């Protein structure tokens, strides 16, 4: 586990959402799969970023990476990001991990 700053965490959370929508595994939504559940209580996943999920971005073709960036940049309430900037962040985090 590593600590990351809030803007990076927000970006990676948004990336996680975009990647989950791109290709859910086994027809199971990622965030439902990662949610906490027991016999009494259930709660959505919160407070962490799954590194394996966001690292999937590194394996995508450049065109798909660019499409995801366009989707992320369509949100007007968040700062814009480029493919190269996101690749830099992900590779930096991968080295720390």
Characterise this structure.
This protein has 97 residues and is mostly helical. The protein has a single domain, classed as DNA polymerase, domain 1, CATH 1.10.150.910. Helix content is 55%, strand content 4%. The protein is built from five helices and two strands, in the order ααββααα. It has a two-stranded antiparallel ribbon. A hairpin with a 4-residue loop joins β1 (36-37) and β2 (42-43). The longest helix is centred in the N-terminal third of the chain and has 17 residues, at 6-22. The protein is globular. The mean pLDDT is 79.
Indicate how many domains the architecture comprises. Answer: 1
Low-confidence stretches: none
Strand order of the largest sheet: 1-2
CATH architecture: Orthogonal Bundle
H and E order: HHEEHHH
Characterize the overall form.
globular
What is the CATH level 1 assignment?
Answer: Mainly Alpha
